[in-house]
């Protein structure tokens, strides 16, 4: 039975199982190994339906324009900070992010970060903003506060897909920061 290469590629990409053999001309060769041979049902890191990117929606059932979507992005940011993955957390900051050494200095001594509920969305000049308060705890019990300001561009002519998703615009550090 002759197999269609494009059909096989689509099946392999869709995770519908492995191809046991492939036919090249009249010679038969063994199939290429699965992406994750030890656990064939588990996709390789960064692939599959649960793969996430900083600009992509965290939960596809959440309206990407909602305050809940903004809070999900901040939750991912807080999770990275609490896991001490500062490089990845810094990558979630927008184009006007502080220099990296200033970002690291603000986190110095913080042992745990918690997130509060977001405020109301506010519009300005074709954009929508929302603020999410954070609390940074320290070993000596001292707490510091900051506010993550998120922005997304409205669906206006000339705006890009990336601009229409929530992104961290800046972090406003509270007193004592």
Structure description:
The chain contains 4 helices and 7 strands, in the order H-E-E-H-H-H-E-E-E-E-E. With 177 residues, it is α+β, with helices and mostly antiparallel strands. It folds into 2 domains: 1-51, no CATH class; 67-173, Roll (Nuclear Transport Factor 2, Chain: A), CATH 3.10.450.50. Strands 3, 4, 5, 6 and 7 form a 5-stranded antiparallel β-sheet that branches. Strands 1-2 form a two-stranded antiparallel sheet. It is elongated, with a radius of gyration of 22 Å. The N and C termini lie far apart (69 Å).
Q: Could you give a short description of this structure?
A:
The chain has 177 residues and is an alpha+beta fold.
Topology:
Blueprint lengths: L4 H9 L7 E4 L2 E4 L36 H16 L3 H6 L8 H8 L2 E6 L6 E3 L2 E12 L4 E11 L13 E7 L4
Antiparallel strand pairs: 1-2, 3-5, 4-5, 5-6, 6-7
Task: Please describe the structure with a list of short key phrases separated by commas or semicolons.
Nuclear Transport Factor 2, Chain: A, 177 residues, five-stranded antiparallel sheet, 7 strands
- Tally of alpha and pi helices: 4
Shape: elongated
The CATH class of the largest domain is: Alpha Beta
The portion of residues assigned to helices is 10-25%
Low-confidence parts lasting 5 or more residues at pLDDT below 50?
1-40, 42-48
Cα distance spanning the termini: 69 Å
Q: Describe the sheet with the most strands.
A: 5 strands, antiparallel
Secondary-structure arrangement, i.e. CATH architecture of the largest domain: Roll
- What is the fold-level CATH name, i.e. the topology of the largest domain? Nuclear Transport Factor 2, Chain: A
